[in-house]
Design brief:
The complex is a heterodimer of chains A (about 400) and B (about 450). Chain A has about 400 residues and is an alpha+beta fold. Helix content of chain A is about 25%, strand content about 40%. In chain A, strands 1, 2, 3, 4, 5, 6, 7 and 8 form an 8-stranded mixed β-sheet that branches. In chain A, strands 9-10-11-13-17 form a 5-stranded mixed β-barrel. A two-stranded antiparallel sheet of chain A has the order 15-16. With about 450 residues, chain B is an alpha+beta fold. Chain B is built from 10 helices and 17 strands. In chain B, helix 1 packs across helix 2 and helix 4 packs parallel to helix 5. Classes of the chains: A alpha+beta (about 400), B alpha+beta (about 450). Chains A and B meet through strand 1, strand 2, strand 3, helix 2 and helix 3 of A and strand 1, strand 2, strand 3, helix 2 and helix 4 of B. Strand 2 of chain A pairs parallel with strand 3 of chain B, so a sheet runs across the interface.
Chain lengths: ~400, ~450
C-alpha cells in the first residue's frame, strides 16, 4: 500500500502541489433489523476507495475514486491539483499549515469478539428475542430491533512523511416499541433512541446491553405513554438521563467548539457558533466531548428536587445555527414531586439558550454512573459525511428550565 | 459514469451469478464536484466518484440485501454469493409477496451534457461572481456550487430492466453583513449552464442588506408569509411524517382514518409527479418501477399515499414507483413533490398583510409528533416584520413549534410563481401566507 500512496503523493508534487495527503479506506458494514417478530432486513456492505487532498497555489483541492490502483492514484492526484488551482481563483490569502512532526504507526480499536464472525443466526436470534419482549405489552403495534456493525481500515500518508494505519471496529444495537391509538403515537426505545447505543468494540458490547430485559420495559412504557397526561407547560427543574444529556452535550457543546463553525466555514450549511475568534480556515470535527462526572447519585438528585421532571431518551432535537436556542423532545418524562418520581408524562419538550442552560446546571451524577454513549449519525458538511462520535456523561440537574413547549 | 451498455452488462452479470428464487440487482453511481466557499473564499473543493452494486436475493419469503462498490468479476461473484448466503440465513418475512413486475417506462431526458462537462474552473468562476456581488453589498458570502452526474440501472429476475442517467447543479448562497444581516438564495437545475450566479447572489445580498440590525420580537402566534425555501422544508417533512404507505399501515400517519376528510385549507393541493419536467424528473424508482403521479392532498382533502412494491402487495395494489431504495426498511416516500400554485405574487401578499412575519428559510427542522404533524425549527437568513403591508424591519430569529396541518388550514394566499428545491428529493412550491403560525421562543441574533 505504501508504494501506491507514494505514487499519489509524488504525482501531486510533480503537478505543483506544495502539500498532499492521501487516505485509502476500506469499510465493511452489517445491519440486521427485525420488525414485528420477523427479520425485516439483513444487509451487508463493502466499500473501498481513496481520496487525495492537496494544497496548490495556496488553496485546497480534493479528489477521490473507488478504483485503487497506481494509474488511478496518479489521475486523481493530478485532478486534485487542478481543483486546488481552481480554488485559488477565489482566495484572499494562501493557506499555511502548522508544522507537524511526521508520524508512523498503527492503531487498532479493541475488539474481543469479531462481530462479523458471529453467526448471523445467533445475532438474529437475540434480536428476535428482544423483538418479542417489546410485544409483551399488548398495546405495542410496531416492535423493532436493530444491530449494526462497522469496520473501517484506513491508511493515511502525507508529503510530510507520515504513514499511519488504523482499524476501527464498532458495534451497536437497540430496540424501539411504537404504541398507537386513534390520533396518538408514542415510542419508547432502549438503550438509546435512533438505533440504540454504539461503541468502538466487538460483539461483547452487544452481549453486555441486556437487550431483552430493556425491551420488555420499553414495550410496557410505550403502552403506558398512550394514557399518560400531556407534559404541562411552565418552568421547572429537570434531570436529564444519560442518553439525552449526551445529545445535549453533542449539540450545545460539541458542535459550537468546532473551529470550522467558529471560523465561519460551515456558515452556509451546518451553521456557525456563538463562540468567535480570528478568521482562519481549519476543518475540524468533534470526536469525543465528555462531561466530567460530579459527586451526586441520580437518586440523591431526585430526592433533592422538590418539583421537576426526569427526562429520558431523545425523541426530537433542533438547535439554531449559532447553537444557542435549542429544543429537545424526549420519549418519556416522569414528574418529580417532593423528592420522588411520580406519574409518567407524554410529549415532553424542553427548551433554552445554551449558556443560560449550562449555567443552571447545579448537580451532576458521580463517576460510577458515568458512561460513554455512541452517536453514529452526526451529520455536517457537504457532501454530507456522517461521523461516529461518542460522549461520556452521567445524569445532571438543571434549574428553572422551560418545559412543555408542545401543547397537547 | 459507466453508461447504459456497461451498467446494464454489469447488473445482468450479477443477476446471472446470483442463485435465488427472485433476484434484483441495482447499480448506482456517478460523479459529484463541489466547491464550498465561506468568508468569500473557496475553502474546500472536492470531487467524488463512486459506483455501488446492490443485490436483493429472495429465497421463498426470505430476503437478503447486500451491496459493494467492487464491480469487477471477482467483486460481483463475491457479492452474489453473499446475497444468497444472507438470504439463506434469514427468517421468513410473511408480509413479503414478490419483487415488482415490469412496468412500461416513460422516456425522461434528465441529462445535460453542459453539466457533465462543467469544469473546476467554471465552478470557481461562478463562485467568483457570487463573491463579487457580495463585495458590492459589503457582505461576506458563503455557500456551495455542486454539479452531479448520476446513473442507475435496475434489473430483476421477473423482467424489470431500467437504466437512467441524470445531471443536477445546485448553487447556494448565504450572505452576511454585520450587524446581524443575513440572506439566502439558491438555484437548482438539471443544467449547470442555466444557473445564474449573479441572480442568486443578488437575491441573497438584497435580503441580507435589508436584514442588518434585526430587532427583538416577542414569541407568539403570528400570520406568516413563507418564502418557497421555508415552504419546501415544511412540505417535505409532511411527506416523511405520513404520506408513505408504510406509515399508514403502521398507524403512525396523520392520514390514518382521515382519507376523504378535509385536513388543510381547501386551497392546498399536494401531489407527487416524478415525470413532470418542472421538477427533477426521473422515469423509475430504485426498484425499477415506473413513476406514477399521486394526488396526496386534493383541495385540502386527504386523498392518497405513495407505495413501493412491498407495501402495495400487502394491500393487493400496484406500486406507485416510490420505493426509497436499499433494503426498503424506510418504506415508500414522495420524492418529487409539487404544491399547486395560487394566484398571488409575493409583493401583493405582503401588501395585503396588516401585520405578520416574512420568513426566508427554516433551519434544523425536526418532528415532534407525526400524527399531530407538529414540527419545530428556527427561522434563518432573513426574517422580517411586516406592518401595514410593508416590510418594516428585520427581526431576530425565532423558534417555531407548530402543527403543519393546522398551519395549512389557515392558508390565505398562495404564490403564483413556484420555485424548484432539492430538499430531501425534489419539490416545487410557491410562497404561502398562513394566518396563524406559532413561534415558541426567540434567539439572540
Amino acid at each position: 500500500m505504501e508504494d501506491l500512496t507514494r505514487r499519489a503523493l509524488e504525482r501531486a508534487l510533480q503537478a505543483g502541489a506544495t502539500y498532499a495527503d492521501v487516505r485509502v479506506v476500506r469499510r465493511t458494514t452489517e445491519n440486521i433489523q427485525t420488525k414485528n417478530g420477523h427479520v425485516e432486513a439483513v444487509s451487508s456492505g463493502e466499500s473501498a476507495g481513496f481520496g487525495v487532498r492537496v494544497l496548490a497555489d495556496g488553496a485546497w483541492g480534493f479528489a477521490s475514486s473507488r478504483q485503487i490502483d497506481a494509474e488511478e492514484m496518479e489521475r486523481v492526484a493530478e485532478l486534485a491539483v487542478r481543483i486546488a488551482r481552481a480554488s485559488a481563483l477565489v482566495k484572499q490569502a494562501d493557506v499555511s499549515l502548522a508544522p507537524v512532526e511526521p508520524a508512523r504507526g498503527r492503531f487498532e480499536s479493541p475488539c474481543q469478539k469479531d462481530p462479523f464472525e458471529v453467526p448471523l443466526a445467533e445475532k438474529t436470534a437475540l434480536l428476535l428475542d428482544a423483538d418479542a419482549a417489546l410485544r409483551r405489552s399488548p398495546r405495542v403495534t410496531v416492535s423493532e430491533a436493530t444491530m449494526d456493525f462497522f469496520r473501517e481500515e484506513k491508511t493515511f500518508a502525507s508529503t510530510e512523511g507520515s504513514y499511519l494505519e488504523q482499524t476501527k471496529t464498532e458495534s451497536g444495537a437497540g430496540v424501539v416499541a411504537t404504541a398507537t391509538e386513534a390520533g396518538e403515537v408514542q415510542v419508547r426505545s432502549y438503550p438509546a433512541a435512533f438505533g440504540g447505543d454504539y461503541a468502538a468494540a466487538g460483539y461483547e458490547f452487544i452481549e453486555g446491553l441486556d437487550l431483552v430485559r430493556g425491551a420488555e420495559t420499553a414495550g410496557q412504557e410505550a403502552g403506558e405513554l398512550l394514557d399518560a397526561p400531556q407534559c404541562p407547560s411552565g418552568e421547572t427543574d429537570i434531570i436529564l438521563e444519560g442518553q439525552q444529556l449526551a445529545l445535549q452535550v453533542h449539540e450545545s457543546c460539541g458542535h459550537p467548539i468546532e473551529l470550522d463553525r467558529v471560523f465561519g466555514t460551515e456558515a452556509s450549511y451546518a451553521g456557525t457558533s456563538f463562540l468567535t475568534t480570528d478568521n482562519r480556515i481549519p476543518l475540524i470535527r468533534m470526536t469525543n466531548i465528555n462531561l466530567e462526572p460530579g459527586d451526586w447519585s441520580l437518586d440523591e438528585m431526585i430526592r433533592d428536587t422538590r418539583e421537576g421532571l426526569y427526562l429520558a431518551s431523545n425523541k426530537s432535537w433542533s438547535i439554531d445555527d449559532k447553537r444557542l436556542n435549542f429544543q429537545f423532545g424526549t420519549e418519556a418524562a416522569w414528574e418529580i414531586r417532593d423528592g420522588s418520581l411520580s406519574r409518567l408524562l407524554k410529549n415532553a419538550t424542553y427548551t433554552g439558550i445554551t449558556y443560560q442552560f449550562w449555567r443552571a446546571c447545579d448537580a451532576i451524577a458521580r463517576k460510577r454512573e458515568w458512561r460513554v454513549w455512541g452517536l453514529p449519525n452526526c451529520g455536517k458538511g457537504e457532501p454530507a459525511p456522517v461521523a461516529h462520535v461518542g460522549h461520556g456523561v452521567s445524569s445532571a440537574r438543571f434549574r428553572g428550565v422551560r418545559v412543555g413547549v408542545m401543547k397537547g | 459514469m459507466l453508461g447504459r451498455e456497461t451498467a446494464l452488462e454489469i447488473v445482468h452479470r450479477a443477476l446471472d451469478m446470483t442463485r435465488a428464487d427472485q433476484v434484483e440487482v441495482t447499480l448506482r453511481g456517478g460523479d459529484q464536484a463541489l466547491p464550498r466557499y465561506a468568508g468569500s473564499v473557496i475553502h474546500q473543493n472536492v470531487t467524488e466518484r463512486d459506483t455501488v452494486l446492490s443485490i436483493r436475493a429472495v429465497i421463498g419469503k426470505k430476503v437478503g440485501f447486500v451491496e459493494s462498490n467492487a464491480t469487477d468479476d471477482e467483486g460481483i461473484r463475491r457479492l452474489a454469493e453473499r446475497a444468497r448466503a444472507v438470504a439463506e440465513a434469514q427468517e421468513e418475512n410473511p408480509d413479503f409477496v414478490s419483487l415488482p413486475s415490469p412496468t412500461p417506462l416513460a422516456a425522461v431526458d434528465a441529462w445535460r451534457e453542459s453539466t457533465a462537462r462543467f469544469t473546476p474552473e467554471e465552478r470557481a468562476r461562478a463562485v467568483e461572481k457570487v463573491v463579487q456581488v457580495a463585495g458590492r453589498y459589503g457582505a461576506s458570502a458563503s455557500g456551495a456550487f455542486s454539479t452531479h452526474t448520476s446513473e442507475r440501472a435496475v434489473v430483476n429476475s421477473l423482467g424489470v430492466e431500467a437504466y437512467g442517467s441524470s445531471t443536477t447543479a445546485l448553487l447556494t448562497a448565504v450572505m452576511n453583513k454585520e450587524p446581524g444581516g443575513f440572506g439566502y438564495a439558491d438555484q437548482v437545475s438539471r443544467d449547470a449552464a442555466a444557473i445564474d450566479p449573479e441572480a442568486v447572489a443578488e437575491e441573497a445580498a438584497e435580503t441580507c442588506a435589508r436584514g442588518v440590525s434585526p430587532r427583538d420580537l416577542a414569541p407568539g402566534v403570528y400570520p406568516v408569509i413563507l418564502k418557497p425555501y421555508a415552504v419546501a422544508d415544511m412540505v417535505m417533512f409532511l411527506g416523511w411524517m405520513g404520506l408513505g404507505a408504510l406509515s399508514v399501515q403502521e398507524h403512525r400517519s396523520f392520514m390514518n382514518d382521515r382519507f376523504g376528510q378535509r385536513i388543510t385549507g381547501e386551497a392546498i393541493t399536494l401531489y407527487d409527479d416524478g415525470l413532470d419536467p418542472a421538477g427533477l424528473a426521473t422515469a423509475f424508482d430504485p426498484e425499477g418501477v415506473a413513476k406514477q403521479r399521486v394526488e396526496m392532498i386534493v383541495n385540502g382533502h386527504a386523498n392518497a399515499v405513495v407505495y413501493d412494491s412491498y407495501t402495495a402487495h400487502r394491500e393487493g395494489k400496484q406500486s406507485t414507483g416510490h420505493a426509497s431504495g436499499g433494503a426498503g426498511v424506510w418504506g415508500p416516500l414522495p420524492r418529487n413533490v409539487f404544491l399547486a400554485p395560487g394566484d398571488a405574487d409575493l409583493d401583493a401578499m405582503i401588501a395585503d398583510t396588516p401585520r405578520g412575519i416574512l420568513v426566508t428559510r427554516f433551519h434544523y427542522t425536526n418532528v415532534l409528533h407525526p400524527v399531530k404533524t407538529v414540527f419545530t425549527g428556527m427561522t434563518r437568513d432573513g426574517t422580517f416584520w411586516i406592518e401595514n403591508g410593508q416590510v418594516a424591519h428585520p427581526v431576530k430569529n425565532l423558534r417555531f413549534t407548530q402543527s403543519i396541518l393546522d398551519a395549512l388550514d389557515t392558508v390565505s394566499a398562495i404564490g403564483r410563481e413556484t420555485k424548484l428545491q432539492a430538499e430531501g428529493g425534489a419539490c416545487r412550491v410557491p410562497a404561502l401566507r398562513l394566518d396563524a403560525f406559532e413561534f415558541s421562543s426567540a434567539t439572540e441574533f
